[in-house]
Each structure stands twice: as structure tokens, then as C-alpha cells.
Amino acid sequence: WPQFNTVITRPHESEMKDDLDNYANSYFMFTNNPDNLREMLANTDAVNWKQVLQIQGFQSSVDEVLNDLCKCKIIKMDRAKNILFLRDAKKDHMPPETKERITTTPLLHAKDGQIFQIAPLKECYADLVNQGWGFGGNERSLRYIQRCIRHFPSYAAMSSDGNPVCWTVTEQSAEYRMGYTLPEYRNIGLFSRLLSLVTMSP
């Protein structure tokens, strides 16, 4: 390191005991040499192909290698494509009023004038997140969400009664995902404002 060809990361084996848990059985891959990746995946135990699993990567070369291997190993592979948004972290691109707001008080001002407090999302709300997540709704996803909230930054816009109405959870890929707004609080700019504030440079 840093002279490398391929990187494969995954959770500790102790967290990958359930062969059907594709939330825990997750891998992230990057390669400078697709042939090297193909060799690692085909001839080492870097990936436990006996499990239901998920593999994430953002290179077309990784997708091609996986597609070839699955054909050789007769493994069924479902694809899901996502778009990754990156925020420009330069402070001088932020509106002055936004800078002032985040440094003085953790409040979020919606388009309709409502004001919400921003707070770390607590693990006790994992079931609420699970219900709203398109890839969730089951016991395994609930355990995964609990783990994400426990170990990674997650935030919510809280109503006046102290309950989350909009939230985003950091997943093990270090991406803010699982974003959701309760139906009765939609179309007032909550989520975009929440994401803008929590991703702002200190």
C-alpha cells in the first residue's frame, strides 16, 4: 500500500454468520487491474460464494468481471444501479445565511416556514426507518439499520413533539442513504435542506 491492484473489503467474519443475510454479507470492490480482480474472485476465498450477498462497486470493469464469474459459477446475480451525488465541500459556495444557521443552532427551516430541530437519529427509531426503506421491511434489514445507526452518523429533522419526520442514515459504504420523509411532511424541502446541512463542512 499504496501500490495495489485490487481492494476488497467486507465486515468481519463474525458479522457474516447468517448465509441468507445479504445486508451483512456485503463486499466493496475497487481495482486497477480487472484480471487481478478476476483471479482473486475465482481462485481465493475472498468472497464466500455460498452465501446470499451483495457486492458494491462503481467501476464498469468490476461489473464485467462479476458478470463473467457468475456465468462460470452458474450464480444468479441481480443488478441495481444507483447514482452517487458528491457535494462540493468548499465553504465559499455556501450561502452566508446557511453558514450562520448551522453554526449557531441546529435548526432546519422548511419552505413553508415550519422550523424543525436537527438531531442525531437514535437507534430506537430503527423500525420507523425500516418501514420506509425500499430495500427493507424485514428482520434482517432491521438489524442492519440498527447497526448503521449505532456506528455511523445518522440525522433527523424532529417535529415539535420530538419525533423524527425526515431522516438520512449513513450506511457502511459511508454514503448517506435510506433518506425518507413522512408523507404529511413532504413537498416543503425538508430532505434537501437536511442533507445540505449535515453534509456541510465544519
What can you see in these coordinates?
With 202 residues, the protein is an alpha+beta fold. 31% of the residues lie in helices and 20% in strands. The strands form two sheets. A five-stranded antiparallel beta sheet has the order 4-5-6-7-8, sandwiched between helices. A three-stranded mixed beta sheet has the order 1-2-3, with helices on one face. Strand 2 (26-31), helix 1 (34-43) and strand 3 form a beta-alpha-beta unit. Helix 1 (34-43) packs parallel to helix 2 and helix 4 (126-132) crosses helix 5. It starts with 5 loop residues before the first strand and ends with a helix.
Protein traits:
single chain, 202 residues, alpha+beta, 5-stranded antiparallel beta sheet, 6 helices, 20% strand, elongated
Secondary-structure blueprint of this entry?
Layout: E1 6-9, E2 26-31, H1 34-43, E3 54-56, H2 60-73, H3 96-104, E4 107-109, E5 115-120, H4 126-132, H5 139-151, E6 154-158, E7 164-170, E8 176-181, H6 190-198
Parallel strand pairs: 2-3
Antiparallel strand pairs: 1-2, 4-5, 5-6, 6-7, 7-8
Helix pairs in contact: 1-2, 4-5
Quaternary state, please?
Answer: single chain
List the helices and strands in order: EEHEHHEEHHEEEH
- Trace the largest sheet across and list its strands: 4-5-6-7-8
Strand content: 15-25%
For the termini, the CA-CA separation is: 30 Å
User: What is the radius of gyration?
Assistant: 20 Å
